[in-house]
């Protein structure tokens, strides 16, 4: 049974142990006084909640006098009827309308577990909450495969010196965000988007501006657009989350909204300000975009800590890995990292290139492709070079002599490619199939000047970026296949388990003479629409030169039988039974010998 917490008092019989298990979700928002009636009816209770997310503000702000009065009456009755010991008295002290059920059960629970896996966003997105609210205890499962600029972005909006008519609004930020929303809506696959702002006035302004657009409704529908304040976004998740900070150099009221520091407090309002930061900055799955109208160092308090964290993540992602990020068991990787830092082309590319060390590529590919069945490959270095349309991904590997080659006494600079271990070759071919390009270096090909060698080889790869990007990859093919399945242009055959176009399932024998869709692909049948043959073919006897009808959707098959065609036998099945093969290019094939061209003469 799924029910609200109040339903237990209004509709469920008051019977102890009525349910084997009651699960209370969002327990930080439910007071123990509200949950008591559910507790009475349960044999076991499972409580799920997060003290760092919003609590029940109504109960937190309840009358202290009334609460104290009720609490003292309950305590008096409990002592008179139960004669409790000091431990029980301490527990009953927690029975308070201001105490959440989550806080209450922490003292009496026989099992407590923290759910550490975070499935929503990348480490760079959830890192702020993990560090400042969960003691670095969250483990982001998603692996970022794109550039850091595809995950974090700051947009500084230049002011015009004019004062806003309505307080707590920023028209220029609203207009900049709306232009960004139009850009997102123009993409082939539009993401889910939300806008979060500290002030209800800015929320209202954004709503009004979008509704005033001629394409406003279409924009909102295409992006599944929602506009929240930091107080109203709990429980939401979106692909792209835009933040409008509103504050300007001359007017900044954010310290009324957010905590001045990130230390815990017993004060209700201070905790609410903290929770806004944690809840508000943990909604994005793919990207955070922050619009601000004054330089980041000029912000103050808790919001400055949050913005500074994301700015540092952005800078760190652009700078690339440091010594601590490479494999400590491979001294050569540290050397390769040093060479990379000196390669001229990387400096020339600037923000167009990003480097990761010890990148878990296999785990990342499994995120993209649920059918990925290969090992969880980890690569020494992954380089991403942003092109005009897509990103070129280069795997840079250093192959140690003993670790990556066989028949060591036979290997030299002229033949080392033929003595690579089979596992390394297989691994490379698999990853190349997913669109990655390999740059392997070792003692034989690094040359006397490793920096120059790397620079030259990288330039050769990057110079081909336009042509490289045009070639399809397995990832792109898989994505296109998933879209086709979603659009019902393809389906999976339950017999052969292959994904085929829906036309392959057409069966002429179904639904009378017009045919229908079969459950499986049956090669023994010709699946096509009924053919209206010209009158010239309507005769009895052998057909020597049948005229050509426009046939474009037929399967290939030869059935060498008789070649007698009667006026009644005009369907694809009739042609097959009379030994005529139907070609995709619209030609007939008599038996398995003679083929006719478009003008009807033998070819």
Could you characterize the architecture of this molecule?
The structure is a single chain. This protein has 603 residues and is of the alpha/beta class. The protein is 34% helix and 15% strand. The strands form seven sheets. The chain has a five-stranded parallel β-sheet, with helices on both faces. Strand 8, helix 11 (268-280) and strand 9 form a beta-alpha-beta unit. It starts with 6 loop residues before the first helix and ends in an 8-residue tail after the last strand. The model is unreliable at 468-472 and 522-603 (pLDDT under 50).
Shape: globular
What is the typical, i.e. mean, pLDDT?
Answer: 80
Pairing-aware structural class of the strands and helices?
alpha/beta
The separation of the N and C termini measures 73 Å
Low-pLDDT ranges: 468-472, 522-603
**Quaternary assembly:** single chain
Number of E-state strands? 20
Percent strand: 15-25%
Largest β sheet strand count, sense and barrel closure:
5 strands, parallel
Strand order of the largest sheet: 5-9-8-6-7
Number of helical regions: 21
């Amino acid at each position: 049974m799924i029910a609200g917490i109040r339903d237990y008092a209004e509709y469920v019989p008051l019977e102890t142990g009525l349910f084997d298990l009651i699960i209370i979700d969002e327990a930080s928002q439910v007071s123990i006084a509200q949950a008591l009636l559910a507790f009475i009816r349960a044999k076991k209770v499972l409580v799920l909640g997060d003290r760092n997310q919003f609590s029940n503000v109504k109960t937190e702000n309840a009358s202290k006098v009334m609460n104290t009065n009720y609490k003292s009456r309950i305590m008096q009755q409990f002592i008179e009827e139960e004669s409790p010991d000091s431990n029980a008295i301490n527990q009953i002290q927690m029975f308070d309308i201001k105490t959440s059920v989550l806080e209450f059960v922490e003292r009496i629970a026989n099992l407590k577990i923290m759910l550490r896996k975070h499935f929503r966003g990348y480490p760079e997105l959830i890192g702020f909450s993990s560090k400042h609210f969960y003691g670095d205890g969250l483990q982001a499962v998603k692996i970022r495969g794109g550039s850091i600029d595809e995950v974090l972005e700051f947009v500084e909006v230049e002011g015009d010196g004019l004062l806003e008519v309505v307080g707590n609004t920023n028209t220029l930020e609203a207009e900049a965000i709306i232009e960004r929303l139009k850009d997102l809506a123009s993409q082939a696959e539009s993401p889910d988007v939300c806008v979060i702002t500290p002030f209800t006035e800015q929320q209202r302004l954004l709503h009004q501006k979008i509704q005033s657009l001629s394409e406003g409704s279409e924009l909102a529908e295409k992006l599944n657009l929602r506009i929240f304040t930091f107080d109203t976004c709990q429980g939401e998740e979106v692909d792209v989350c835009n933040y409008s900070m509103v504050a300007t150099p001359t007017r900044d009221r954010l310290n009324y909204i957010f905590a001045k520091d990130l230390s815990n407090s017993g004060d209700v309002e201070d905790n609410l300000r903290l929770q806004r930061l944690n809840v508000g900055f943990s909604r994005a799955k793919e990207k955070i975009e922050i619009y601000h109208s004054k330089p980041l160092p000029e912000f103050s308090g808790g919001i400055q800590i949050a913005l500074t964290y994301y700015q540092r993540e952005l800078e760190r992602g652009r700078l690339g890995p440091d010594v601590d990020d490479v494999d400590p068991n491979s001294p050569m990787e540290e050397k390769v990292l040093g060479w990379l830092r000196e390669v001229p082309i990387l400096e020339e590319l600037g923000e167009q290139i990003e480097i990761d060390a010890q990148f878990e590529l296999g785990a990342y590919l499994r995120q993209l492709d649920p059918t990925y069945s290969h090992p969880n490959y980890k690569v020494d270095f992954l380089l991403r070079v942003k092109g005009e349309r897509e990103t070129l991904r280069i795997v840079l590997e250093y192959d140690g002599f003993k670790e990556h080659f066989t028949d060591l006494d036979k290997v030299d600079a002229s033949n080392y490619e033929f003595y690579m271990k089979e596992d390394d070759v297989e691994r490379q071919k698999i990853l190349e199939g997913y669109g990655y390009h390999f740059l392997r270096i070792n003692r034989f090909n690094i040359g006397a000047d490793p920096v120059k060698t790397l620079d030259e080889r990288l330039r050769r790869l990057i110079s081909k970026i336009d042509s490289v990007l045009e070639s399809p990859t397995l990832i792109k093919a898989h994505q296109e296949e998933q879209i086709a399945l979603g659009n019902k242009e393809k389906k999976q055959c339950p017999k052969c388990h292959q994904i085929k176009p829906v036309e392959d399932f057409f069966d002429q024998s179904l639904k009378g003479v017009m045919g229908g869709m079969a459950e499986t692909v049956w090669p023994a049948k010709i699946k096509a629409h009924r053919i209206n043959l010209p009158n010239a073919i309507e005769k009895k006897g052998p057909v020597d030169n049948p005229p050509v009808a426009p046939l474009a959707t037929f399967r290939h098959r030869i059935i060498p039988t008789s070649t007698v065609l009667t006026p009644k036998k005009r369907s694809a099945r009739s042609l097959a039974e009379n030994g005529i093969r139907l070609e995709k290019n619209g030609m007939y094939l008599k038996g398995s010998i003679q083929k006719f061209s478009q003008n009807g003469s033998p070819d």
